[in-house]
Design a protein that fits this description.
With 656 residues, this protein is α/β, with parallel strands linked by helices. Helices cover 23% and strands 27% of the residues. The strands form ten sheets. Strands 8, 9, 11, 12, 13, 14, 15 and 16 form an eight-stranded mixed sheet that branches. Strands 6-5-4-1-17-18 form a six-stranded mixed sheet. Strands 28-23-32-26-33 form a five-stranded mixed sheet. The radius of gyration is 29 Å and the shape is globular. The N and C termini lie far apart (128 Å). Residues 1-18 and 21-33 have low confidence and may be disordered.
Length: 656
C-alpha cells in the first residue's frame, strides 16, 4: 500500500501576515464601536437675584455680606476654574426687586439703546442662556423687551404666547424664543474635543396672567408648564439636542401638582428627555433639608425623580452647581452619573462671609449704583417713633397700618364723584418684610427721625399698582379667613407650648383689613388651604367682625383698596379674580405712600388695634422673629422674649 506523504505546513510570507492583521483590525473597528469617550460638564445657575447686583442693602444704606451677585461672581469664577467644561445660566427674576431695579425702570428710565445694568454684569460673566421670571413682567412688556435686548446671550421662555386678534390658540406664536440649542466644544477626560448640542428650555408660572394682568391681558397668554414641556422636549431632541437642560422659573411643590400649577418642578422631572433642571422662583435651597423625606428626592446626589436638579436660594446668596458625567458608549451622549450642590456666600452658623465681592460688578454699574443711592436718600417726612415689622405677623402693626392709611387717602380722592364714593371704604395691606425664607434680617426697621425714599421702598417693596374691589360683607369675611391661614391650629388640650405661625405661609398673603374690627380664634381649623381651597367649611377663625361698631352686614357693599396682585387673584383669595375691580389706578402703592407721607410731613406711627388674636388659656403661643426686635419690646406689652437664639433670630411668645 502506498502511503500518501504528509502535507507540509507552509508559512505565508511576513507581508501576507501583516496584511491579514490589518484586515482583521479594520474588520474589528467596523464591527465594534470605538472606545467610549468620557466627558464631564458642570452646569452653574444663578436665580432670583432681584437686582441685588452689588452686596448692598439699599433699605439700610449699608454693605451686606448676606447677599449680592458680586459675591456669587467670586463663586462662579472658582467653580469654573475647577472644571474643564462649564455652562452658566440665569433663571430670571433678575431686573426687579431692589431700589436699583426701580431706579432704572421708573425713576431714571433706561434710555433707548443703552444696556441695562443687569446685563452689563451678566454679559461680562459670559452667561450662556437665561430664562424669564415672573417679576420680569412687573414693569410691562415694552421695558422687558428693551432690557433683555441688551443681553449678549439668548433668553428662553416656552409657555408664553402672543395673544393676537383673530389668531386661534393652536396657531399662536411664542412671545419669546421657547428654547435654544447651544453648540459648544468640550474636552473629554482623554483630552479630545467634542461638539455637544445642549438644548435649553425655560418656563414661567402661568400665574403671571393674574399677577401682572394690567401689563399682559390682551397681549400675551400663558400655558401650562408640563403640557408645554411634553410637547417641546421631543421637538428639541428631534432637532439634534444631545442634552436637554430645563431652567423653569418654578418651584418644587410637595404633594399633588395640578394643571397650570405655579410650582411644577416635581412633575417636570418626570418628562422624558430632560437631563437636568435648574429651578428657582420660590427662593428655596435644593438640595436642602426642607426636601428631606420626599419620595422623589435623593438629597445626597441632588436629584428629583433621578434627574439632577438645583435651586440656589435668592439674591445671589448661593450658586447652584450640577456636575454631569457623560459618556457615549451607546453611540450617543448620556448622563451616567451626576451630583448637585449649592455653594453659599456666607456661613450661616457663624454668620461670617465665605467669599469677597468681585470688584467687577461695582465697577460695571458704578453710575447706576450712585444714582440709586442719591435717590433713596432723599427725605420725604419725619417719624416720631421707629417703624418696624418684627411683630407684624402676630399683632396690629404700624408698618402695615401706615400703608393702609396711605391707600385709604389715595382711594378717597380717586373715588370722589363716582358711583362708589358713598360706599364704606376699607383697606387691605400685608407685612412684606417679615423674615421667613428671606432671613432674620429681612424686616422693616426705620429709626425715629427722617423718612427717606429708601424707607418707603422698605415699607412697600413691590412695584404694585393701586386697585380697589367691590365686595359684600360676606366676601370681606372670607378674605380675612384666607389670611388667617397664616396661623397653626392651636389645640387647647394639647402641649402647654405651641408654635403659633405657619412658617410655610407667605407673609405677603397675611392681609389685615383696616376699617373693620375683628378677632382671630386660632383654636379652630383654617377655613382655606394655602392655595385657596375651602378645606374646613364648618370652621370660622374670624370672630366678632364689626364695621362701625356693629356686626358686619354680610349683604352690604364695601370698597376695599388693595394692589393689582391681590385684586387680580394673586394668592388665590376667595372672591378675588379681577372681575370686581372698580378702581384701576395707574399709580404704584409706593407712590401713594410717598404722597401720603409727604402730605403728613410728620407721622406718629401707631396701630389702632382693630384686630388681635384671642388668647388660649393655659397655652403659651410662641413664634420666631428677628432678634433685633428685642430692642422694641417695651412698645409691645403683649409680647415677651423667650430666648435669643444667637443666629439672628429670637423666640418670642404672646403674653397672657
Amino acid at each position: 500500500m502506498t502511503q500518501t506523504p504528509a502535507r507540509a505546513l507552509v508559512r505565508p510570507p511576513a507581508r501576507h501576515a501583516a496584511a491579514r492583521a490589518a484586515c482583521l483590525c479594520l474588520f474589528l473597528c467596523l464591527a465594534l464601536p470605538l472606545r467610549a469617550a468620557e466627558l464631564r460638564l458642570r452646569l452653574l445657575e444663578t436665580t432670583d437675584v432681584h437686582m441685588n447686583l452689588v452686596n448692598y442693602d439699599y433699605y439700610q444704606d449699608k454693605s451686606t455680606d448676606e447677599y449680592g451677585l458680586a459675591k456669587t461672581v467670586t463663586l462662579i469664577k472658582a467653580a469654573r476654574a475647577e472644571a474643564k467644561n462649564s455652562l452658566l445660566f440665569d433663571n430670571g427674576d433678575l431686573i426687579q426687586g431692589s431700589p436699583l431695579g426701580d431706579f432704572v425702570a421708573r425713576v431714571r428710565p433706561l434710555p433707548a439703546g443703552q444696556v441695562h445694568p443687569a446685563y452689563k454684569v451678566l454679559n461680562r460673566l459670559g452667561v450662556d442662556a437665561a430664562n424669564i421670571g415672573n417679576h420680569e413682567f412687573n414693569y410691562g412688556l415694552p421695558f422687558l423687551r428693551q432690557a433683555i435686548a441688551g443681553a449678549n446671550f439668548p433668553y428662553v421662555s416656552a409657555n408664553v404666547y402672543l395673544d393676537e386678534p383673530g389668531v386661534a390658540p393652536a396657531d399662536a406664536k411664542h412671545a419669546f424664543t421657547p428654547y435654544v440649542i447651544l453648540e459648544r466644544t468640550f474636552v473629554d477626560e482623554a483630552g479630545a474635543t467634542h461638539t455637544l448640542k445642549v438644548g435649553v428650555i425655560g418656563f414661567v408660572p402661568p400665574q403671571i396672567m393674574m399677577w401682572d394682568r394690567q401689563h399682559l391681558l390682551g397681549r400675551v397668554t400663558a400655558r401650562d408648564i408640563l403640557d408645554t414641556a411634553r410637547r417641546l422636549v421631543p421637538e428639541m431632541k428631534a432637532k439634534g439636542a444631545q442634552l436637554v437642560v430645563a431652567i423653569p422659573h418654578s418651584g418644587f411643590e410637595r404633594g399633588e401638582t395640578v394643571g397650570f400649577a405655579e410650582n411644577s418642578v416635581a412633575r417636570l422631572a418626570e418628562v422624558p428627555g430632560i437631563d437636568a433642571i435648574l429651578f428657582g422662583h420660590s427662593h428655596g435651597e435644593f438640595p436642602g433639608r426642607f426636601f428631606a423625606g420626599h419620595p422623589k428626592v435623593d438629597l445626597a446626589r441632588g436629584t428629583i425623580n433621578g434627574v439632577p436638579a438645583v435651586m440656589p436660594g435668592r439674591w445671589g446668596d448661593h450658586l447652584g452647581v450640577i456636575d454631569l458625567h457623560l459618556d457615549n458608549a451607546s453611540g450617543e451622549w448620556k448622563v451616567v452619573h451626576s451630583r448637585a450642590e449649592i455653594r453659599p456666600i456666607t456661613d450661616r452658623a457663624t454668620r461670617k462671609p465665605l467669599v469677597d465681592a468681585d470688584p467687577m460688578v461695582a465697577e460695571a454699574i458704578a453710575a447706576e449704583h450712585a444714582g440709586t443711592l442719591a435717590y433713596v436718600r432723599a427725605e420725604v417726612a419725619q417719624t416720631s417713633a421707629p417703624i418696624i415689622s418684627y411683630f407684624a405677623q402676630v399683632a396690629d402693626d404700624p408698618s402695615v397700618q401706615v400703608v393702609s392709611q396711605a391707600q385709604l387717602a389715595y382711594a378717597k380722592r380717586a373715588l370722589q364723584g363716582t358711583e362708589f364714593e358713598a360706599l364704606p371704604l376699607l383697606s387691605a395691606a400685608a407685612p412684606f418684610k417679615a423674615g421667613g425664607r428671606q432671613g432674620w434680617n429681612y424686616y422693616t426697621d426705620i429709626p425715629a427721625g427722617p423718612v427717606a425714599i429708601r424707607n418707603i421702598a422698605d415699607l412697600y417693596i413691590y412695584p404694585n399698582t393701586v386697585k380697589a374691589v367691590r365686595l359684600t360683607g360676606a366676601q370681606v369675611r372670607e378674605w380675612l379667613e384666607m389670611s388667617a391661614g397664616q396661623f397653626n391650629r392651636i389645640d387647647p388640650a394639647g402641649p402647654p407650648v405651641q408654635d403659633l405661625v405657619n412658617e410655610s405661609f407667605r407673609t405677603y398673603n397675611f392681609d389685615t383689613i383696616d376699617g373693620v374690627s375683628y378677632r382671630i380664634d386660632v383654636t379652630r381649623p383654617a377655613r382655606y388651604s394655602r392655595d385657596g381651597k375651602l378645606v374646613a367649611p364648618g370652621s370660622r377663625r374670624i370672630v366678632d367682625l364689626r364695621h362701625g361698631g356693629q356686626p358686619i352686614d354680610e349683604q352690604a357693599r364695601f370698597i376695599v383698596v388693595t394692589n393689582n396682585y391681590r385684586a387680580s387673584g394673586g394668592g388665590s383669595f376667595p372672591g378675588l379674580d379681577g372681575s370686581n375691580i372698580v378702581m384701576d389706578a395707574p399709580d404704584e402703592n409706593r407712590e401713594a405712600l410717598a404722597q401720603y407721607l409727604a402730605g403728613m410731613k410728620r407721622i406718629d406711627p401707631s396701630a389702632d388695634g382693630n384686630w388681635r388674636l384671642l388668647p388660649v388659656p393655659g397655652i403659651q403661643l410662641r413664634f420666631l422673629s428677628g432678634a433685633a426686635g428685642v430692642a422694641h419690646l417695651s412698645r409691645y406689652p403683649g409680647i415677651r422674649l423667650v430666648k435669643d437664639n444667637g443666629d439672628g433670630s429670637a423666640l418670642y411668645e404672646l403674653a397672657d
